[in-house]
Amino acid sequence: MSETTKYILHESDLPKFWYNIAADSPIPPAAVLHPGTHQPVTPDFLSALFPAGLIEQEVSTERYIEIPTEVREIYKLWRPTPLLRARRLEKALDTPAHIYYKYEGVSPSGSHKSNTAVPQAFYNKIDGTRAMTTETGAGQWGTALSMACQFFGLDLEVYMVKVSYNQKPYRRFLMETYGAQVYASPSERTQAGRTILGEDPDNHGSLGIAISEAVEAAAVSAGQKKYGLGSVLNHVLLHQTVIGEEALKQMDLAGEYPDMVIGCVGGGSNFAGIAFPFLRQNLVEGRKTRLIAVEPAATPSLTRGIYTYDYGDTARMAPIVKMYTLGHSFMPPAIHAGGLRYHGMAPQLSALYSGGLIEAVAVNQLATFEAAVTFARTEGILPAPESAHAIRTAMDQALLARETGEKKVILFNLSGHGHFDLSAYHLYQSGMLEDFDFPQREIDSIPDRTPKIDEVLAM
After folding, report:
1. What is the distance between the alpha carbons of residues 389 and 369, in angstroms, rounded to a whole number?
2. DSSP 8-state assignment for residue 32
3. What is the pLDDT of residues 410-440, one digit of tens each?
4. Can you tell me the distance from the alpha carbon of 439 to that of 382, in angstroms, rounded to the nearest whole number?
5. H-run or E-run covering 295
6. No. of helices (H) and no. of strands (E), the chain
7. CA separation (Å) from 249 to 130, 246, 399?
8. Which residues are CB-neighbours of 245 under 8 A, at least 6 positions away?
9. I need a labelling partner for 33 at 20 to 30 A (CA). Which of 159, 166, 171, 366 fits?
């Protein structure tokens, strides 16, 4: 077993339940507020966007929620995913650390996003939804939901952040192959998009803007369309916990337990997916695993944002939630990690970070691509730029172990492949990428760019 590289589970080991961190978190959830009234949201407001099954999961405090048979059967197309020991990377780094990674890029859509896309499409189908709307940054979420909607016979509109729409045409072509209609955001199709283009015709888009368009398209459809979100919300993080539940079994096969678990964060879903089951072990079993969320220095919501109530989208149509935020009007630089260019962070993750139960670091673009290239040249897998943020920090921790002479067991989530990101790799290797540091003046102005909420009323 000492030379084993892949730790493979049988289909019979596929989790039967999603794990809900709300059951064990010592931090009570903050109220979710209506974007217009600033009062706690009602089921009627949520039902305009989501089917009943997902609303129930969003507010549930049950520890385990059963995965429907129809969803598990589709999961079997790629789950359980492999856990690998990065032996060649360890050798290249000359580290005593043992580095493991959970590889979600084996899914048909190429990333972890399918883990929530399939159940979201399923619950919409059984609720009578005819079509869905969504946003996408790098295109991984849009691709996953396009595939899932095709499986369940649903139409799909995707509002793709314009800079990614232009950078990654083949991701768009794949979504269209699955049957989705894809629009560059901001677009002329929605009032939100038209307003933003009227103010700035050259606007290159953001996830906040794309969310506004997708929410509006669902809200004005008279119930014909529902909205799907690829990260941030509780039910999305819940669905991703199949990753960590499998990883726990696979670490048992390896005969080791991680000292640290690492994942990249934009909205928080893939980090939560691998980290929440290990956090349960910390909270319930007394384990001491470090849980490290890694974000771009260009969009540092956790490490430099403020913890306050803010809108989930630019046009202020989505619910107001308490989270670490850079301000809903934030316009991110055009870094090549489109899935991490969101202004806020999942409320559940934000609360856990505020409570000191997870850690966060920010890394620069050039160092991230350097790590990605090293990983590709040693392990053979070209990682998505988003996932490369986790690789960067895993490598940094392994190099620290080399300095201290300590054997550390490191587990990270390789949440997707980078086959549609080759233009970014070309720019990096051509010396045409640069780092972006979020200006302090923008940090200082966040309180002026977030809603004034009476938190006493909101509790």
Report:
1. 8
2. P
3. 999 999 999 999 988 999 999 999 898 888 8
4. 31
5. strand 290-296
6. 20, 15
7. 38, 5, 27
8. 15, 17, 19, 277
9. 159
Backbone region of residue 377 per phi and psi (left: phi > 0; alpha: psi in -120 to 50; beta: other values): alpha
Tell me the sheet residues that pair with 414: 103
> Does CATH place domain 6-14+68-110+235-458 in 2.40.50.140?
no
Q: What are the residue boundaries of the structural domains of the chain, listed by start?
A: 6-14+68-110+235-458
Q: Is there a contact between 437 and 298 (Cβ–Cβ < 8 Å)?
A: yes
Q: Give the residue among 111, 149, 383 at the shortest CA–CA distance from 270.
A: 111
Q: At what angle do helices 269-285 and 347-354 cross, to 10 degrees?
A: 50
Residue type, 120: Q
User: CB-based contacts of 329: which residues, under 8 Å, 6+ apart?
Assistant: 208, 314, 343, 449
* Mean pLDDT, the chain, integer: 93
What SS3 class is residue 435?
coil
The three-state secondary structure class of 145 is helix
Distance CA 333, CA 337 (A): 10
| Distance in angstroms (rounded) separating the CA atoms of residues 164 and 172 | 9
315: left (phi over 0), alpha (psi -120 to 50) or beta: alpha
Q: Are 56 and 66 in contact (CB under 8 A)?
A: no
Would you state the structure tokens that stand for residue 100, as one six-digit string?
Answer: 């493991």
| Cα 261–chain centre separation | 16
Other CB atoms within 10 A of residue 37 CB: 11
Q: Which residue has the tokens 């316009």?
A: 331
For residue 437, give the amino acid letter: D
Per-position b or e across 302-314, b if 16+ CB within 10 A of its CB: bbbbebbbbbbbb
User: What residue type is 312 in one-letter code?
Assistant: G
* Residue 163 CA: distances (Å) to CA of 137, 167, 180, 204: 9, 6, 19, 5
CA distance 205 to 182: 14
Q: What is the pLDDT of residues 337-381, one digit of tens each?
A: 555 667 899 999 999 999 999 999 999 999 999 999 999 999 999
CA 315/CA 219 separation, integer angstroms: 13
Which of the four pLDDT bands, split at 50, 70 and 90, describes residue 336?
A: low
Structure pTM? 0.95
**The dihedral formed by the CA atoms of 436, 160, 143 and 85, expressed in degrees to the nearest 10:** 10
